[in-house]
Specification:
The structure holds two protein chains of two kinds. Chain A is an all-beta fold. Helices cover 0% and strands 56% of the residues of chain A. Chain A has no helices and 13 strands. In chain A, strand 5 and strand 6 form a beta hairpin. Chain A is globular. Chain B is an all-beta fold. Chain B has no helices and eleven strands. In chain B, strands 2, 4, 5, 9, 10 and 11 form a six-stranded mixed sheet that branches. Chain B has a five-stranded antiparallel sheet with strand order 1-3-8-7-6, with no helix packed on it. In chain B, strand 6 and strand 7 form a beta hairpin. The radius of gyration of chain B is 13 Å and the shape is globular. Classes of the chains: A mainly beta, B mainly beta.
Chain lengths: 118, 110
């Protein structure tokens, strides 16, 4: 079974530009979450999508947005890039099932897209 | 104060040693506890998953959750050089928003 696939793996952009990152979840997974990883702040939650709807959102400015398609693939967009947006952007997918009343939200991560803003 | 605290290390041990990694947290609503391993330039890989309190064992790895103390641990037995990586604890209240520790860098010396 293929894992979470993120494209592109590396991106270099300049300040003020916008960027779109793509994520294909594990087959059958309907929940997709996005995280930003930086040396200073660690891994921080951006948002989570399920069935094309954003269910959870982290504390990031409106320049960060996302969407999910009917096939569960997801994209995130960052507009008006700033130097501080340089980071590893990680996508995670999760199956949604209940087992004996317990809802499991195990998340499987992709390799990430490393964004450098110059 | 961060919701999840984790010693960044680095932690250097000889091959074969027992490694103990820990996280403390402040939010008593956390119910799901995970440990991820991240190699350089790779995404986090899920190692252990625990719901609520208790112990869980998988091969050389044991995860412990003590909700009364708000403390979780990961033990690695018979550590190998291939275990050298950054170990991240993560937890959630049940939504799909994971709160991560800052990660502990582990180096296992041959």
């Amino acid at each position: 079974k293929a894992g979470v696939t993120q494209t592109p793996r590396y991106l270099i952009k300049t300040r003020g530009q916008q960027v779109t990152l793509s994520c294909s979840p594990i087959s059958g997974h309907r929940s997709v979450s996005w995280y930003q990883q930086t040396p200073g702040q660690g891994l921080q939650f951006l948002f989570e999508y399920f069935s094309e709807t954003q269910r959870n959102k982290g504390n990031f400015p409106g320049r960060f947005s996302g969407r999910q398609f009917s096939n569960s693939r997801s994209e995130m967009n960052v507009s008006t890039l700033e130097l501080g947006d340089s980071a590893l952007y990680l996508c995670a997918s999760s199956p949604t099932w209940k087992l004996a009343g317990e809802s499991k939200n195990i998340q499987y991560f992709g390799a990430g897209t490393r964004l450098s803003v110059l | 104060q961060k919701e999840v605290e984790q010693d960044p290390g680095p932690l250097s041990v000889p091959e074969g040693a027992i490694v103990s990694l820990n996280c403390t947290y402040s939010n008593s609503a956390f119910q799901y506890f995970m440990w991820y391993r991240q190699y350089s330039r790779k995404g986090p890989e899920l190692l252990m998953y625990t719901y609520s309190s208790g112990n869980k064992e998988d091969g050389r790895f044991t995860a412990q959750v003590d909700k009364s103390s708000k403390y979780i641990s990961l033990f690695i037995r018979d550590s190998q050089p291939s275990d050298s990586a950054t170990y991240l604890c993560a937890m959630s209240v049940g939504s799909y928003k994971l709160i991560f520790g800052s990660g502990t860098r582990l180096l296992v010396r041959p």
